[in-house]
Amino acid sequence: MKKTRKILILFILMFIILAFYNIVHADSDLYLNNLKFDAKINEDGSMDVVETWNINIKNTDTLYKNFTIDSAKYKSISDVKVSRTDSNGNVENFVKTDKYSYHLNSGEYYFTRTDSKYELAYGIGYGSSSGTENYIISYHVDGAVGLYNDCAELYWQFLGTDFNISAEKITGTIKLPKEVENIDSIQAWIHTPDLNGNVTKSGNDKLEFEVNNNLPKKMVEIRIAMPRDIIDGSSNVYVTNRLDTILNEEKEWVDDLNFIKKIRSILLLVLILLVSLFIIYEIIRCLKILITFKKKKPEKHYDYLGEIPRKSATPAEAAYIISKSYKNNVKYNIGNVFTSIVLNLALKKAIRLENVEDDYNIILCYDGDNNLSIEEKIVYNYLNNACNYNNEKKSNQILVSELNKYIRQNDVYSNSIAKNIERKLDKKVDKLGFFDENGEKIKNANSMNFLLAFFIGIMIIIMGLATQYFENLLILWMGIVLLFVFSLVLLGIVNSRISAYSQKGINEIDKWKAFEKYMEEISSLDDKDLPDFKVWEQYLVYATVFGISKKVLKQLESIYTNKDFVTLKNQLIGFFFNPVFLSSLGSMSSAFASISGGGGGFSNGEGR
What we know:
Layout: H1 2-24, E1 30-41, E2 47-68, E3 76-85, E4 91-93, E5 95-96, E6 108-113, E7 117-142, E8 145-147, E9 152-159, E10 166-175, E11 187-191, E12 197-203, E13 206-214, E14 220-226, E15 236-237, H2 243-292, H3 315-323, E16 324-326, E17 329-330, H4 334-347, E18 351-356, E19 359-364, H5 374-387, E20 397-399, H6 400-409, H7 411-431, H8 437-466, H9 474-497, H10 503-520, H11 536-546, H12 549-559, H13 563-569, H14 579-594
Parallel strand pairs: 1-10, 5-6, 8-15
Antiparallel strand pairs: 1-2, 2-7, 3-4, 3-7, 6-7, 8-9, 9-14, 10-13, 11-14, 12-13, 16-17, 18-19, 19-20
């Protein structure tokens, strides 16, 4: 079942990526709001074209356009000019240069011919900025109209398949050299791969065309069959009949595109069906979980807890328990963890802290007894290595400022220490039975399915909004969007229902949160709930690992005023009220946090 499910998911993702490729494969720094073509066919069979680009530009200094050389459709392109107009109607004529360059200066352009194409490029000056501009390109096409025995034909590609800019709207007019007596003698077709364009006759001598939401690399091509007598001459003359061939080719073109459109609709229908089955499967799975699993609650809830929930738990262990939501996802600040371990080493007299002017000195004095936890031993050895780093003589002390430099200069080693602490805490906590392996598996799988469903749903929505493919499947498309939204809601509910903690773990974490809340809000509690001030020597270490020590310190100063507390302030707890110590503490926490990603904590975790 799992293998089949994986294959289904892989198929869906591959199909979406392939179907979505042409939509996203665009020059994201360029977007045409409007592209207008004004073409005039001359009596000698040539054509003059004026293109007006209203374009959004970002980080692009040169725009370009290619014209594929095709002697059967035209002879040459000449008299190319480029200009820019501002909102006031002022015109800036670009200067032609004969020097080919990949990047052009603003206001310059070149037009060159190779064996296979003409290339136009012009500098716009937006290499490191953005804006919206209006550009005008004009050119003369010689031999644009082919003369045959029974008709005259214009077969012109306004945009080629190498044009890599999306266009919201494309419009155009084509003016014939003279009026025809019978408008039905003019026949016109527009070629757009997505069938999103139309061409109409607006008089006896004029045609108009329009294309909406043209995607990158999608050609826009116009073909017109007109009476031969409205063209006096051309450099493209053929002594043969052409009209029947044109009509047959156009019928085949329409038939082929309609077939492709049907295939696309069928494939999209299959995609919708597969995605619907996947989402329905997820909905059923979520409903079963909601029926089967009851949300775990603590057997005895605590609003506040004025004592350490478990005396044997170190501050680092407490942070690990309260921060681990599920397997391989532990979100706590490693800087706070490291600092709390250093403070706990001071409490256990394994190190001594001494004020030295605007700094603090860490002096190692561990006598080798077994009262240190495994993570404390790791940090103690780390401090020992730091003391002897670049020292010719063995030393047992280091300034906090020097330690900060050591942490950053040895970031790989420091990061390995952070990972080692996490591994040791993971093993220690796992043995205590606080986590439910089955709950972790379900929560992990549920999170992955949530992301997968979200990705698939977003792709379907974007495809539906950005393409014409869904026009015959609108109801089905809206249905799958509703299913998608419903499944996301259910997945979110399930994620909140399933816990990675066992019942023992739920009880434990409730106590730690109550203890944390107690320290944060102690000033609002009654005097009878206040502990002996001496315990704060240890409590503040836990406050440090939870990142609330500053809040707790402010409250302590307001609720304890007796002489004994003043005495205690002169001992270890007094460091917390020393601005120099607080500054040193903060810098040490920031230094160690920076080596694992800036303080986030543990988590495996067409222009030129």
